[in-house]
Known about the structure:
single chain; mainly alpha; two-stranded antiparallel sheet; 72% helix; disordered N terminus; antiporter activity; potassium
Amino acid sequence: MVMSSFFKLTLILIITSTPTSYGETAITTATCTAIHQQNSPISKCNYVKTNTGCVPKGYINYLQIFYCNFSQFPQLGFIFLLLWLVVLFYILSNTASEYFCPAVEHLSKTLNLSPAIAGTTLLPLGNGSTDVFSSIIAFTTSTDGGDIGLNSILGGAIFVSTVVVGVLSLLITYRRRIVIVDKPNFIRDVVFLLFTLSNLLIIIIIGKITFWSSLFFVSTYIIYILLVSYMHFNTMKKHKTVIDVADEDDQIQSTRVPLLGSVVDEENVIHPAEKPVHFEEEVVLDDPKRCIVTFFYVINMPIYIPRRLTIPVITKEKWSKPFLVISVALAPLMVALIWNTQYGKLGLKSSMVIYFVVGSIGIALGTCTFAFTSSTAPPQKCLVLWYALGFLMSVTWTYLTADELVSLLESLGNIIGMSPSIIGLTILPWGNSIGDLTSNVAMAVYGGAQGTQIAMSGCYAGPLFNVLIGLGFSFVFVSWSNYPASYVVPEDPNLCETIGFLVVGLLWALVILPKRDMRLDYTLGGGLLVIYFCFLFIKLARALGLLGASCSNLID
């Protein structure tokens, strides 16, 4: 899932060289598919080094490693890449659980946000801000960018609202937790998303949009946030009345009402004595187990240290002044380095100036942190700024890892001979939303009752944010550049199909949850996953030429 990721901006370049409707309508220009036509290991290595379609989207050239460094031992090379794939997945999930989720939790508590507000603001902001930037860049910098932006946003929306919600429901049920979602807030989110998709479908069918229409499209999100705020403060007001009447000691843990009606664990309440303990505190390990733990500790250090040195953490459990000073100093430099190496395209002198300025800012921030923080306890002032910085840097690491992950997956697809159209249908949309999946699942699993509600709210508020703000502002910019003429929306009949499946998934949740008393269960999760796999099956069939376009008659 700030996510001023750098991955989703890169994704535009990936999709540009693959068919746009997740692999259906564009002509591939620079691919690496001819690698399998080379006869010798030397020719394959030379092809990978000289063909622009084999240039990695991340930082590591996996094709060159496989075909050049492991040319004599391809099986070993494949195992190496699979092991690195496991490491990347671990970094992604661990960053979400250890850094991103605590940052969201502490930031929402510091700002006194309910799960509804956090789920509709912080989580969409973290998971979707790069969708906004990438959509705007796609619309304004490429001739077929509108098609790319539409497919990227809608493809991510259907993945989050079906797969992510489905996985959350199955995990909650598997863990034997009974989670009851607040009905009014759930209906509000789904209805707004359905209304937004209906407006977008009308725009696609008409084939053009004016500047004033684009402003109306964006303004829907303002109405949504106002309604969320009204419901939040109304709930707080009612709850405050309840607290005033009830005994203060009995109500001290309920000062903020979660949107969950109730969360019941079938194993009842876990008492402090029953909580799991850390092995270093109370568990004595024998020599073999100690060796294993030490081994994994050493292996984990290269993964742990870079994040610890760049993500500010001020929790009591992980408090360390040296780490905080270093992370505050290095965080701006890391952001500048990533941006310049991936997207800046600046000359040497300009890069050096940027690094000097950003480095100076980092040193200044580190010096202030060293001077005004205690060595024995984390800071107690300006908590919002501290948690916000940790939030932003955890988001940066999440999408930096996702960027490298999708690059590796695309390379593995080329190695096993997967066609670009299939890559566009599977690897790209999955990689596009893997940050949302890991962050939302981590929130639900490790965040308790409120974490589950934040994750559920984010699964619907996130796509709404991406569609209304990402596509909305893209429409505003391109229609303003054409004013007073209208902006002509790219013709892609398969967009109707994507919106149709997205609506079906929303309606399924809207019908099943009330019938199940708003409980997350196997019926909801399994149905949503079936809907997504039907969508994927039809897309694959069309990519293979077994089906025609979906709603060309409507657009024509």
